[in-house]
Amino acid sequence: MLATTRFxxxxxxxxxxxxxxxxxxxxxxxxxxxxxxxxxxDDGNQTNGDGxxxxxxxxxxxxxxxxxxxxxxxxxxxDDGNQTNGDAxxxxxxHGGNCTATGCGNSxxxxxxxxDDGNxxxxxxxxxxxxxxxxxxxxxxxxQxxDDGNQLNGDGxxxxxxxxxxxxxxxxxxxxxxxxxxxDDGNQTNGDGxxxxxxxxxxxxxxxxxxxxxxxxxxxDDGNxxxxxxxxxxxxxxxxxxxxxxxxxxxDDGNxNPGDGCDAFCQWELVxxxxxxxxxxxxDDGNQTNGDAxxxxxxHGGNCTATGCGNSxxxxxxxxDDGNSTNGDGxxxxxxxxxxxxxxxxxxxxxxxxxxxDDGNxSPGDxxxxxxxxxxxxxxxxxxxxxxxxxxxxxxxxxAQRRHCRxxxxxxxxx
Length: 415
Fold this sequence. Notes:
Radius of gyration: 67 Å
């Protein structure tokens, strides 16, 4: 009887287990090892993260282990199972989802981000706010001096990259050609084709005379190619002694030595006989000879005046020449009033003080006496009067001859 009771009890337990098993099978429980409708896998071990997540009590849902299946497994920060990025958990693996919390630095580009390189470090191409690190994005990045974000050059910060902008302050020498610049090679060097060393006067103009920047081969550069303003058209200093006749110079003989015709201020020196008619000279034939139309033999009184009485130079035919064009002062050289460069005195042909006349000799009886007083005129003789005088002269001469002969005879006889 007891044995029968035990048998029946065991049979009851077995029947109960069969009923339970059939119910579990009928319910399709994840983790039962059976792939039921709605399940993608079921390895029956009630473990997540081993390829098939079927740990029902821990959220297993019999889907292959992976981001986006709704089950947070190793390496995942979150998994909301909706394969959508930007909804707090980025798990759209087809578009970079990696089951991390939505945000800059999780390697998933979502709304408001231009880039996401998985970190919050700037200067690596994608900055800490997940914006591209580009000149003109408004963010001061590594290597940039400025960035106003407006992609404009010439407004203080040149960041129009399409137009050569490089996020440097607008100015000569930054490599960006802006208003007022003809060139800008960005190397802050003058004389290399574009003068942009603004520290040394550069103005971003092509290297060359007349651009206002002194470079190799130039002595000066005043910003133009006009001569006679201190800096010549070839950018050489204009000064007295450079052998170039500049404005304000009368001469330039290549030196500043006085006494050579051109003085230290490049003005003509009055050097009579140098062949140059200068201020104060009437002539200068350069031959250092007096009496040849121009008296310029300075060693003998030459003064570069026309040869003639009254020029202070005694030349052929002159006894004196005191150069004052005055008669009666010792040398009569007022040629306009009869002066002839002879010593003042009666008989020189020039009437001076104390003289009534001067006919150039001191012979009397010619109308002007030996002391230059006017003589009464000698009356003219008629032909008869002239005959009588001639006869008288002949008689007188004959008598004189006879008397001479008589005296001579007496001396010969001793009487």
